[in-house]
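Possible regression after last week's pipeline update?

I re-ran a chain I had predicted before the update to compare outputs. Posting the input and the new output here so someone can diff against the archived version. Not blocking, just want to make sure nothing changed silently.
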Amino acid sequence: MRYITELREGENISGIYLCKNKQNLKTKAGKSYYSMILQDKTGTVDAKVWDLNNGIEHFESMDFIKVDGMVTTFQGSLQVNVRRVRRTQEQEYDIRDYLPTSRFSLDDMMKELTGIIATIKNPYLKTLLESFFVKDKEFIKSFRDHSAAKSVHHGFVGGLLEHTLSVTKLCDYYCTRYPILNRDLLLTAAMCHDIGKTRELSLFPANDYTDEGQLIGHIVTGTEMLHDRIREIPGFPVGLANELKHCILAHHGELEYGSPKKPALVEALALNLADNTDAKMETMTEIFAGAVDGAEWLGFNRLFDSNLRRTSK
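New output (post-update):
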């Protein structure tokens, strides 16, 4: 099959893709058209069906569809103008071709994360981490396979693990430069800061918000998960529990970004900075990967509120 990262402007394509999302919209002139997101394991691409003719069979979001069309560009990103569509049968595709996956080994990343847990000295925090990442087989499987977001950054299988490991390693570096940081507290918070996403988002191929995700969100859900697990550890200090939960509640940094609290502890501030760094760097990485080859200026991006440009070689 022709993977999305292999598509080039001006070429005709004929292939099977997962229709991640489908909207029935109207042009300014009142003509109906479909706006879709097509997905395979290498990423996603915007697609449009401008002419709803007999060659466009009925399909819905999350269907695997055979697409015939032409690759164009719009505002610096690839787009597929679709001429024909049909729903496919299960035997026509291999589902492993349609799940975007981390470029890093999930086994290696999990091993590195548990290796960091072994360096935690505080017995209560170490027991807490091991209860999630070493002993809870159901949680481990979900955590390994989850994305870190529906879109924007780390929206792929293993994305949550990759993001968590990156944030943890950034925080570990901070501890070598700023002695005021409590390493055990900060690294525990880093490893647990997004555990709520295992319940906020469904697994692939849907990778969409659950009812709990829509109504509560991963920050509060993650704090509740920590609270419940801490209650199972005899003698866990109340003050330490409150400081850890504060780091989770404040890790988005600002109330307007969804944090119920703003950072009051230096560890909460450090976690917010590391989380924001990795999220933005991965977002930029994915924007560059999805842009047209050879393009320098990539157009205005609302996430960065800037017209983005590749660095000169």
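Follow-up from reviewer: compared with the archived run. The longest strand covers residues 12-26. Marking as no regression found.
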